[in-house]
Amino acid sequence: MKKVLLVDDEILIRETIRDTIQWEQEGFIYCGDASDGEVALPMIEQYQPDILITDIKMPFMDGLELSSFVRRNSPDIKIVILSGHGDFEYARTALRLGVEEYCTKPISSADLLQTLRQVSDKIDAARLEKLEIEQLKLEEKKQTGLSQSKLLNDLCSGFITTSEAVHLSSKLNLNLLSRYYVVVTADFRKLAPSDSAPDGISEDMKQAEHLLNLKLEGNNHLVFKRSKTECVWILKYESQEQIKQALETVQQVQNQSMEHLSYSISVGIGSVQDRMQGIHVSFLEAMEDMHWRRLSRQNRHAMLESRNGSFEQSLFLDRAKFVEFLKIGSPAHADTFIHSFASTLQHTEWHSSLIGYYILNDLTLEVFRSARDSYPNIANFDMTLQELQKTIELIRTLDESRTYLIRLAEQYWQWRSEASDKHGDMLIKVKKYIHEHYDKDYFSLQDAADHVNLSSGHLSKVFSQENGQTFIEYLTQTRIRKAMELLQTTQAKSYEIAFLVGYNDAHYFSNLFKRVTGMTTREFRKSGQLSKDLPASEREEHKGFVSYS
């Protein structure tokens, strides 16, 4: 229903209009009436009418002055002028003020009601239009948010090149350029196994997620939701000192979350990178870090439950001390160190309690997390962990626990020895496979991973770390380089060359070629020579994207 307020200095007219129209039956609410504009002002403020009916000639404040005031301060109120004056100047002034209707007296109740219905229809149309505009703006904002999240997700996942990321981010008015980058991931979930499926995030976990968002808010942080329980932040700063301060804040959140036992906040931190292409590597490292922290937290929660809620930090072995020995110690000193280190386990109840399992499993998870950080190219990682956890289950004496710790140390040193190889043979095989199949438009990271019997995630991480560029960037480099050769050595059309180097979209190929080389295909063909390097301007703009060798 629309609210109506009447202003007229003639009481008879006010009473006639008020009493001859069945207001509610006609879809209106009669708020009241006033004898002049000055009296009407507080009523307008109080009732906020949708329609104002006002006479023109009134004492103190006439209808035109009142209309002018209402138009400035309450533009949504529709104004209907009632006037006994037929002077054209009055009508013109009223129209200039934006009144909806200008009616001359006398006017019948039926005519006035018809006018009110017309004005009511205009109000409905205006409100509908406003709602549609707001919905469009909301949808546009939502789509922009989705586009930004997809861009950041693709960048972290290594699905797009640096050049493409810069190009797409400019369309979204998103500033990706910075001197240093580091990725932080966080997983928010309940600890109990029965509650691990994220059907919904409890309110306290939402508050924890919001708190971390607040600590990481600002122009230096880009965030997107990777899943219902996982958030990813890309931190970008101009100095390593700024990066260090930001990561200290993140670490504080990680440490504080140890106090919450009904749910977990597992925070993962990747390495600091000085190129945009390194975001992918930092992301993979952060995800690995987050994974092992979550396993460790679940293990400690299980230990807490086994002790009926009694939690003593001294029950656990000194993880930092053990890992430090693995990094700087040697097998010759293993027996002596571990004999002393494991002395705290002498009172452990191996037969009647699972406490020994949780203590050793906690240390094992920390060793694995440290090994993953130091030697990221380890294969069969999860399988080795499962084998060691089965061994822990069989331990029943202090001597057996010491034997296990020696085996754990030997496993770490074996990884350290194997890491020197750096997967050289495997990467040579992958690159050879790329050069043999780059011309297939369906060729992907998964194809290469299947060829060398690795997971796509593991291959992507190894490839990026060992080559200084992502898999997709190397593939793009190979394709563009071959396109450059074909442009200089054949008369093939641009769209034909696009197809020959693995692109089924000639328009996309042309845009990509120009972004990478700084020239269109036609300009490059006219240049008359096959340069082994990209133009200097392109190298500076997308540092590290492509360097031919």
Structural write-up:
By secondary structure, the chain is α/β, with parallel strands linked by helices. Helix content is 57%, strand content 11%. It contains 22 helices and nine strands. The strands form two sheets. The protein has a five-stranded parallel β-sheet, sandwiched between helices. A four-stranded antiparallel β-sheet has the order 7-8-6-9, sandwiched between helices. Helix 11 packs across helix 14, helix 12 runs parallel beside helix 14 and helix 19 packs across helix 20. It is elongated. The protein starts with a strand and ends in an 8-residue tail after the last helix. The C terminus is likely disordered. Keywords: Cytoplasm, DNA-binding, Phosphoprotein, Transcription, Transcription regulation, Two-component regulatory system. InterPro entries: CdaR_GGDEF, CheY-like_superfamily, Homeodomain-like_sf, HptR, HTH_AraC, Sig_transdc_resp-reg_receiver. Its main location: cytoplasm. This is Response regulator. Pfam families: GGDEF_2, HTH_18, Response_reg.
